[in-house]
Specification:
Length: 212
């Protein structure tokens, strides 16, 4: 097997558990102290403790701890998830990321490229309506429950890897395939736990009967 094919397989494996989430939010161009417009774009890639809308079969929110201890040294900023036109990246110190009580905040200088200039104009005239981010969830990093209306609710308590984020023209309906697998795994683990509990109860009952 060739080296290029091996690398592609590795990349495919790393991306197989990625998820994307998007939401409407304010994207701003920062103003300079003298009142002139800068090229600094600011926004929030994720917000905490706010339930999403109906994602098809569940709703979701990010816990305040979701990005604790997450390595953000290799995160990329793009417009509309276009990896062919990178706007900034944290390992080049052109993308600045911070976490506060509201969420995950990003900031970068729009590069003097076609993509960067187009983004500035689109933000300026209000064509950009939100942000999105790509991530993977850590093992046991989610919590599922049933909402009052019977809908499944997922809380993301720990992100494993933050891959990419940035402004999007239209916050798209997310692919929830990975979330579905996560729920199925959670239900399977719950079944195993219940089964172990039943087996343990039966064992204790037999021990008690043996003593009588």
């Amino acid at each position: 097997m060739g080296k290029e094919k091996i690398i592609n397989l590795i990349i495919k494996g790393q991306m197989s558990n990625t998820e994307k989430r998007a939401f409407e939010s304010s994207i701003e161009i920062r103003m300079n102290e003298d009142g002139t417009e800068s090229r600094t774009i600011t926004g929030y890639g994720a917000v905490f403790n706010k339930w999403s809308s109906n994602l098809g079969w569940f709703r979701e929110k990010m816990d305040r701890t979701a990005f604790d201890n997450v390595d953000m040294s290799g995160v990329i900023a793009t417009f509309n998830h276009d990896f062919n036109n990178v706007l900034a990246r944290s390992d080049s110190d052109t993308l600045r990321l911070s976490v506060d009580d509201y969420g995950l905040r990003y900031e970068f200088e729009a590069p003097n490229t076609t993509a960067g200039n187009d983004l500035l104009e689109n933000v300026r005239v209000g064509n950009v309506k939100g942000s999105s981010f790509m991530f993977t969830v850590a093992d046991s990093g989610t919590e599922w429950r049933k909402g009052e209306d019977g809908m499944d609710e997922r809380t993301i308590k720990q992100v494993e890897r933050l891959i990419e984020l940035g402004p999007v023209t239209v916050p798209a309906y997310p692919d929830t395939t990975v979330a579905k697998r996560d729920l199925e795994s959670a239900k399977e683990a719950e079944k195993k736990e219940d089964m172990c509990s039943v087996v343990d109860t039966e064992r204790k009952y037999k021990q008690l009967r043996a003593k009588i």
